Amino acid sequence: MSQEFTDNIDTYDQWKSDIGRSLSRFRLWLRRNDLFSEDLDSRLFKLQESLKSEYLTLAFVGEFSRGKTELINSLFFAEYGQRILPSEAGRTTMCPTEIYYDRKEDRPYLRLLPIETRLEETTLTEYRNMPSQWTEVPLMTASAQEMTLALHTITQTKRVSLDEAIKLGFKEDMLERSEDDASMVEIPAWRHAQVSFAHPLLKRGLCILDTPGLNALGSEPELTLKLLPSVQAVVFLLGADTGVTASDMKIWEDYIQPLDGESRLGLYAVLNKVDTLWDELSSRKKVEKAVKRMVSTTARQLQIDAKQVIPVSAQKALVAKVRADKSMLIKSQITELEHLLSSSLLENKEQIIWDSVAKEGKELVEEALQLLANKNDRIYKQREELQSLTGENKQRINELIEENKKDLIEFEHRLLAIKPSQRLLERQTQILLSTIGATVLTKEVEITLNELVNSKTTIGLFSNMRQFFLAVNTIMKELTREAELTNKMAISLYDKFSNDFGMTLLEPKLFPAKRLSRELNTIIKHSKRIDKNLFTTFTEHSLAVRRFFSGTVTEVLQFFQSTRQELISWTENVIHPLTQQLKIQQKLITEHQQELAELNKSRANLDGKIKALNNLVEEIEMETQTANELIKSLEDKKPTDQDSNIVRISSVNR
């Protein structure tokens, strides 16, 4: 990969580290200012941990034998001086392969999921957390030759009976019968592969997804379709010698084009094997014109901008890098693709991290800063009271003691008065939780299972699937309706609190029911594409139903479980600023009462107490400045459109 790509990855890594350091400084700031709580510290710790677990994912998708693996070799692994991933003639990717660096295990490995697991109800997501179900092959990264040999295991096949192959979900017309035994056929040995090793780019968080041809024998459309929406860039490979074929177009329309709505996704069509258009008997201008015409035609057929179509020769690029042939490298046009990928990968991921980590961290700092500001207001008032005590004015001290007692009594009365509003919000939250409770969801799952099992036709299956999606959408609509009422209650509680206690508060963070509803719709949209393929791939009815439940239904249930957890967390977090304010104010009133009582006995330390409050005011001013600097440091990390070089998906010819 080019130095530009490496530099951009380094910049991204530094960008993440800066956010992590700002969050660490904030955690220390909270402790210094007596604003620490275990719940808040836990939230900040989780934000920091999520920074460490983020991957930059780049997917290579296309028809069988378009050169996806060869392009990966030329982009990322040319420094080994040979092909690391099997991409030579006669060898092809037989199953989806993820290439990354496992930070937790911190060791190289090749893990392979046996094809027989297709018969199980366990989802691929669940299998990821079941290492005992995978076959592990030692990966000797010190030797390029040993690595190449180990990775060739991915291409292994096995012979099984035709009936067994069909049960596993393979279509009969795609299977090749054995020459010496017509009852036996050859199928991929593995369903999925995971490769971990300490390549410099992989260690910085890059993850590469290599897919078999999505209409090829070893395709796992469930896995591919689930992974594609979460990637930062997709490279769709075509043959420069063939252009967009009918099978290419089907893959584009079924798998890639639906991603058009995904925000900030880098999407590129690569015309590979452009060297087939090189003609030594034609002039350079004539060849360039032919390539340009092919790019224009491809862009028109795929309905994308011509800037998103890049002609490349992966094979020539690999040879050029291995031989250090600069002339051939330029001719291969690989550097343009490297530039576009580095831009789109980073811009997409930075926006995701800003939205999910840095933005929340910034909001927590602003919330804490408001707590400190209210504390400062109270201290100013107490200082003014002490400064008013001049001479031997004992009567004034007694007046202040009485006023402070009244403040404390009034504070406690207001505390009791606000409790009903808090309880009302808590009861409303319980209503929200019951809306998406296990009982409601289990009932819908049981109904769906019964209907699917009794369906006699494919049309019936699809009809019952639609009914399931309608049912969960209805549940989500009810949650959204109740959430609107809950959010109004939260706003009302904050207003009452602010008015009763005379404190300034930030607006409450509302429960994001509409965002969650959009997420569910996205899950359903992606699931419909998977399930359409599922019920046409698996000829055995019961297996298709089991896969639907282990995949789609499980994902929907996991979504609602996650939503429940988010709701519980939201309830705790929306009350947190109020309870923190009350604790701070109550403590200040009590401490001031003690100060006045001491002054009533002896005026000797009045100047000392005023000086202590002056010091505290100065400290708060300094800590306020520090908090504002933290806010600015996080705000400065926000990606801007001006910083982006990403090529947007065009709406040309739509």
Protein model, in words:
The chain has 654 residues and is of the alpha/beta class. Among the domains are: 52-111 and 192-332, 3-Layer(aba) Sandwich (Rossmann fold), CATH 3.40.50; 390-602, no CATH class. It is 62% helix and 9% strand. It contains 19 helices and 11 strands. The chain has helices at 3-32, 38-53, 68-76, 124-127, 144-151, 162-167, 200-203, 221-227, 246-256, 284-302, 314-323, 326-332, 334-387, 394-435, 438-454, 458-501, 513-537, 541-601, 606-635, and strands at residues 56-62, 97-100, 109-114, 135-137, 157-161, 184-188, 190-196, 206-210, 233-239, 266-272, 309-311. The strands form 2 sheets. It has a 9-stranded mixed sheet with strand order 4-3-7-2-8-1-9-10-11, sandwiched between helices. Helix 10 links the parallel strand 10 and strand 11 (309-311). Helix 1 (3-32) runs parallel beside helix 13, helix 13 (334-387) packs parallel to helix 18 and helix 16 (458-501) runs antiparallel to helix 17 (513-537). The longest helix is centred in the last third of the chain and has 61 residues, at 541-601. It is elongated and about 110 Å long. The protein starts with a helix and ends in a 19-residue tail after the last helix. Residues 58-260 form the Dynamin N-terminal domain.
